[in-house]
# Entry
Amino acid sequence: MLRGIRADLHIHTCLSPCGELEMTPQSIVRVCQEKKVDMIAVCDHNSAENVKSVQKAAEGTGLKVLAGMEITTAEEVHLLAIFGNEAQVTRLQTIVYEHLLPGENDEDLFGVQVVANEQDEVEAIVTKLLIGGTTLSLEEAVEKIHEIGGLAVPSHIDRESFSLVAQLGMIPEDLPVDALEVSALADVEDVKHQIPGADRFPLITSSDAHRLDEIGRVTTTFNMADTTLEEIKKALKRIDGRSILHAGESPC
Amino acid sequence: MMEIHKIVESLGLEVKAGSGVLHGRVEGGYVSDLLSDVIANSKKGDLWLTLQVHKNIVAVATLKELAGIVIIGGKTPAEDTVKKAEEEGIVLLTSPLPAFEIAGQLYELGIHGRN
# Structure
């Protein structure tokens, strides 16, 4: 049976250098439950090392955790990659790590990159420069994501930094992405009219939360049967009655 | 003002596309890697220096009627970028030098930025 499912498909954890340390697996799951978010995607910058622990922390809670990453492409476009399972995002992570620009993270400048376990204990500190970019072009990154079976969604296209539209001036012709993400700062209807070509794509909104209180500040409500990536794929294509019911601030 | 082929010769730039339209005139210069900024602030007839290699640079140059594009830092334009530049008649040049050096050399030739 189809029902409204609230999704926040862009949440950072304490692994992102700019993510607050409070963004631990258990805390993220707790806040999602408080805010009645049904499913999320963990999307840290150029890494997916906290996906598994958030998934484990969510076991038995009813919260679905998709396996994602926010890639910085060679053009400095932020691009969400969202998969159904952790093995897929780990495959992408191998490719992204091979294409990371060289350098080590400076914790004083950018923040600590913590890999946590499902008990919120520190497992490791990532020293790679995750805040930097990769040498993967936008088109290459989209191709890799699709090869592995995920969704490719340019992040916060309305923003002036690291967005598809800011970096590349306009939405490239024939770009085979699955949706575009509108940030919490903009209204989906405004974006549809202001950015030429945006109306050719499904538009979703997600919180891009770097702090706990940002989780669920905007969400996308899908009309679908289950909290799976396959169902979201159908909703984006409006297949079998699936659709996007609402994108923006929560109506409740 | 200067014909673009003179700049190509003086600076030793490599012509990747638009070899048939090198008589075009360069009236000024602009440096930016944010394409939205180039759309907002470049001027018709500018020679544009950038490290971006995505095919959208050709769309921006066409839209703004720029004199041409110099891809700096030894970067190679994407294949579809070269193809699109040929189709649109946009001069696409490359140099191994960084943008600062190219801009300096252009300035010495009398090509300036414009407000």
Remarks:
- The two ends of chain A are 22 Å apart (CA to CA).
